[in-house]
Amino acid sequence: MSELMHELRTEQLLFWRSRELAFFTFLLPIIFFVLLGSVYGTDRIDHVKGSSYLLAGMLGYGVVATAFAGLAITLVVRRESGVLKRLRGTPLPAWAYVGGVLGSTIVVYAIEAVALIVLSKALFGVPFPDRILSLVLTLLLGALAFAAMGIGLTAVVRSAEGSSAVVNAIYLPMAFIAGAFFSPHAFPQFLRTIADVLPLTYFIRLVRDVLLRGEQVWSQPEAVIVIAAWGAFGALVALKRFRWEPREA
Amino acid sequence: MTPAITVSDLRKSYGQVEALRGVSFEIAEGEVFGLLGPNGAGKTTTVEVLEGYRQRDGGSVSVLGADPQQAGGDWRQRIGIVLQSSAMYPNLTVDEHVRVFAGYYSRPRDPVEVIELVGLDEKRSARVKTLSGGQKRRLDLALGLVGDPELIFLDEPTTGFDPQARRAAWDMIRSLRQLGKTVLLTTHYLDEAEQLSDRVAVLREGQIVALGPPSELAGARVATEVRYRLDGREVVVETREPTKLLHELTGQALAEGKELESLEVRRPTLEEIYLSLTGDDE
């Protein structure tokens, strides 16, 4: 356990020390929330206040930025620079490393979620959520599932240089199509068809149900199953294909 | 004394390429062992099999009494690895790096002491991205030593160093020997192998072509060269019996009242032996 805590502290130090990472994965969702909230925060979308609707979308954007994109890019860069290979040469067990990385991702996302919720109250008067346990479970499910997909994604990214490009090309359109920024109701049919298979669509829907409609996470089995299935798929690819050594070695 | 490392008929192929074709050697506890050879000879493959990074195709390997392919965390506590590339976190300081890695070991050395040992005291609070190549390499060494290992692998530890930094690294490696550590050093610098190693193995195309103390490698292979000027003419004689030859030459010169100008007796350098072993075509 002490190895796990040591690695968690190390990962936290590394995350906050890296300005680029902290900006793109932590600050950007907050900036988008303030910007978009000031555009349509007072409108009504799907019978709820625009800012409340957007809060759920930004919790979804936050989870893909932090747990999926940020994690995948970080791990590819570490793999290609040889950091992972070096770590394999120390007594640090693989489970403690992966646990530390996942734990740190969850910590960052938790801080992000709290910051978004507090901001939504302060800036737009969104009431605090009342289904706290369901919300925590929902966000935890999302963080773990997208982290598993992020680790799985590292298997198909070949170079550190290409990692940002590949990852951004996947997660930014996904966030858009899944309705993180705007309501997808005005989207053309083909985009909605794509949205219907994306895990983020189900995650944002689940967050909305819990956050805005007072539902419990366990009363939405369909969304939970889709998110968990994607997470399991990511974990399977990660287990089969994850590499500790650089590609060119 | 049981050897720290035993390698017997080690074989490894990458696809069709046979990288190692039956390599055997032993390294005693407390020995500094140099693995020498040109690029592509199989040095890094050998070391990476011993470090547990690569699976061998044949032969047997024992490192500190364990098979690296099966050894776990307890075994890793006892070895230190300095890889060829300096992989680090650019945003952490020297001090933070050493502390992070010290945390991976159950009985680490004092990070402050290790930083001093590698001569990075003045860069303690500097972020890694601001370090020079040589300074990064010294930090590499610090990270390999902080766990206080019994056995240390150094894969080309001074590649890219200026001569001064290289001398400093050599002193450091010598101090490891004084601490009783076993060191496996790979290098393509001959002087480095000669200066540091108790014994040297020369690897060529996946096979060991010579093995022994640097001085003996020299004695066994190539004749001693005697060089002098006589009557304005440069004379070079190669001999396997330098004592006898010198006695004859000097005796004759004395008898004739002549001086053997610029008399020089030269044993071949390791470099010459190395070139004769590894082939001039490379």
Notes on the structure:
The complex is a heterodimer of chains A (249) and B (282). Chain A has 249 residues and is mostly helical. Chain A has one domain (2-241). Chain A contains ten helices and two strands; from the N terminus they run H-H-E-E-H-H-H-H-H-H-H-H. Chain A has helices at residues 2-17, 19-40, 50-81, 83-88, 94-124, 132-153, 160-177, 189-195, 199-212, 221-241; strands at 44-45, 48-49. A two-stranded antiparallel sheet of chain A has the order 1-2. In chain A, helix 5 crosses helix 6 and helix 6 (132-153) runs parallel beside helix 10. Chain A is globular and about 55 Å long. Chain B is α/β, with parallel strands linked by helices and 282 residues long. Chain B has two domains: 5-218, Rossmann fold; 221-278, no CATH class. Chain B contains ten helices and twelve strands. Chain B has helices at residues 43-50, 73-77, 94-102, 111-117, 133-145, 163-178, 190-196, 214-221, 242-256, 270-278, and strands at residues 5-14, 17-27, 32-36, 58-63, 79-82, 151-155, 182-187, 199-204, 207-212, 224-230, 233-239, 261-266. The longest helix of chain B is centred in the middle third of the chain and has 16 residues, at 163-178. Chain A binds chain B through residues 3, 6, 10, 13-14, 17-18, 81-83, 85-86, 88-93, 245, and chain B through 51-53, 73-74, 76-77, 79, 81, 83, 85, 87-89, 91-92, 96, 100-101, 103-106, 143, 147.
How would you summarize what this structure contains?
Chain A has 249 residues and is mostly helical. Chain A is 76% helix and 2% strand.
Q: Key terms for this structure?
A:
heterodimer, A: 249 residues, mainly alpha, two-stranded antiparallel sheet, 10 helices, B: 282 residues, alpha/beta, Rossmann fold, six-stranded mixed β-sheet, three-stranded antiparallel β-sheet, 12 strands, globular
